[in-house]
Amino acid sequence: MAFNKGxxxxxxxxxxxxxxxxxxxxxxxxxxxxVLSEDGQSLNLAEASYVGRQACAKCHAEQDRLWxxxxxDLAMQEANERTVLGDFDNAELNEHGVVTRFFRKDxxxxxxxxxxxxxxxxxxxxxxxxxxxxxxxxxxxAGGRLQAFSIAWxxxxxxxxxxxxxxxxxNESIDFKHELHWTQRSQNWxxxxxxxxxxxxxxxxxxxxxxYNTRWSEIDVACEAxxxxxxxxxxxxxxxxxxxxxxxxTKGLVxxxxxxxxxxxxxxxxxxxxxxxxxxxxxxxxxxCARCHSRRTQLFDNYRHGSLLDSHLPSLLQRELYYVDxxxxxxxxxxxxxxxxxxxxxxxxxxxxxxxxxxxxxxxGNEVCLQCHVGDKYDTKAHxxxxxxxxxxxxxxxxxxxxxxxxxxxxxxxHFSVPRPDLSEQLDTPNTCMGCHVDRTSHxxxxxxREWYGHHPKGYQKYAETFQAIRSGAVDAYDRLMALMxxxxxxxxxxxxxxxxxxxxxxxxxxxxLVDALHDSDPLMRSAGLNALEQLPPEQRWxxxxxxxxxxxxxxxxxxxxxxxxxxNEQMTSNQQTNFNEASNEYLSSLRLNADDPGAQVSLGNFxxxxxxxxxxxxxxxxxxxxxxxxxxxxxxxxxxxxxxxxDEDGEALLKAGLAHRFEAGVxxxxxxxxxxxxxxxxxxxxxxxxxxxxxxxxxxxxxxYAVALHSAGQLExxxxxxxxxxxxxxxxPSLNTLKAQLAVEE
Length: 747
What we know:
Blueprint (H helix, E strand, L loop, with lengths): L11 H18 L4 E3 L5 E3 L8 H5 L3 H7 L8 E3 L12 E5 L2 E8 L2 E7 L5 E10 L4 E8 L3 E4 L2 E4 L9 E4 L21 H4 L12 E2 L4 E2 L10 H5 L3 H8 L27 E3 L4 E3 L8 H7 L5 E3 L9 H4 E3 L20 H4 L3 H5 L3 H4 L21 H4 L2 H4 L10 H5 L2 E4 L3 E4 L8 H7 L5 H4 L5 H12 L10 H9 L4 H10 L5 H10 L8 H9 L4 H10 L5 H8 L8 H11 L9 H20 L4 H13 L3 H14 L4 H13 L3 H14 L4 H13 L3 H14 L4 H13 L3 H14 L4 H11 L3
Antiparallel strand pairs: 1-2, 3-7, 4-5, 5-6, 6-7, 7-8, 8-9, 8-10, 10-11, 12-13, 14-15, 16-17, 18-19
Helix pairs in contact: 15-17, 18-19, 20-22, 21-22, 22-24, 24-25, 26-27, 26-28, 27-28, 28-29, 28-30, 29-30, 30-31, 31-32, 32-33, 32-34, 33-34
């Protein structure tokens, strides 16, 4: 189950609660020691608050110097002569049939382009967003909404192909109704970008009037974005009144980056690799970096530095994001890739390679790798088989292939894998050899590598075949899955992905694996186990997972609520009801935080539907469609609610409205077909099932239902044809094979 986000309307009771909390907070605050900073601001000794970069720079001048001009420093800036890099001297770009003009007026920066109604109009640039290799621009709309303009400035040099305007989606046919148009939700800064480009970002979305009051402590990614609010640290450092009450070990810091204190990397002469004592491994710094350098969902806004899953839920190795061997497919940033690496397993952290303030590499070229790898073994032609100084001789050429995003932004995969052209032959995965040898094939590369080493190098990551088997329903999927689960040396993110994707119909013994995952020490495994529970009836889910309502990690507790919401209160003990209610409050707060997301509204609707609060469920689904009329899950779930309310006529109209917007969505045709079956309109249902099967042939369930419907209509040969075609894609699917056997005995 993909975790979604949402928000419900404030009630009078909630408002009373807020007022009472504020009053109580006022009385409590009067009892806390309060001191004043040099600028006269009050600093609460008991609770850390943000003080700003200038307060840090007074003692940390060198770190501040390194930070200035970094990508963090320039993550977001007010638009002015100093910050705007693009050509606004009446430059024009003709893209998607629209001529966009960039110009200045009264010392401000403007674009003339197609707006939310498709008409040309002037829009003022409010902020510059990023700096290299491209710079985007933010345009402000009513209600506090900032939109990221989809024509960006290529800030590279002319020699590199830069100093030009370009469209971020050059291969799409985009008009003002398109979901990727710059005025649409997918380009909204408040929802999509803001948290990671400013410090102490508070989105402040108000559902009642659908407006934003987004605020930050500092416009860019400054000291306290990573180190946390520093008021207590300032009190401690200045020996201000009350400093004696601050723990000297932490120095008043919310998080202390002390992971490299007294660390001794020792070189293993035999392997040529450095290692540390396993007890010295820590991922505290990685957890902080991952807040922004990961593909993840934000669930809570009171972020706790050093504990990513307390407030965010990172994506696993889903097939739409990664190839089966874990290489990057879509834009996922670094965290999910790095968790798969042997470097992470060995205890390497971000700042071992990157200076954390300037963000630059610790050393140039291969030297950054030779901090931990013996040059005489690895930086030689005997290892990489390329002439030194040419492509292929650099460590990153083979172990960190580049992917390009946003047309010109090349980023390296932090998977740190061994090139496997032999897997590319079997599984159609990319291999870095083809990056240079574009005129060759994977077969050639696999043969060449085997010729060099005498065998196909296997590397650290050993799960590509397992994911392929699970996703294709191969005969050996169960055995491969069990082997991966038993190999504790394999990356936890890969094992969690396998749990999330396991098919309990493969083998009843997989239930034991699922139970183990639900009690694993790693929250990624527990969250994956909760998602896999969706295959089981609600009562069985409750037996296996109700303990997760008291999980020490907030995101896991939230997932548990979503998974267990169908269990009525009368089937819980008094203590269990209390646990469920407390976790539900947390879950609902995460949905309120993300009320501007249609996915969150669908999750809210699903929760209320499971709790049998049908009016609230309908309200949430309607809000999802208001936010995004193209949001397919809202149509599907809303139609299912209408079915349960005996309103199939409304459901049919709803699904047809959805198809008017997203005709290519197979699930809408499938849902409409099921509704038409209930209406006993089998002819229409067959047409709908046929379209679902043709549009999304990879969804085997659609093929199965279509074949059953054809059989019911007496079209036996057509049913057999659909089954045989589907079995080519999923030869071991039990449902298809059972149906094939049943039809084989019929005339």
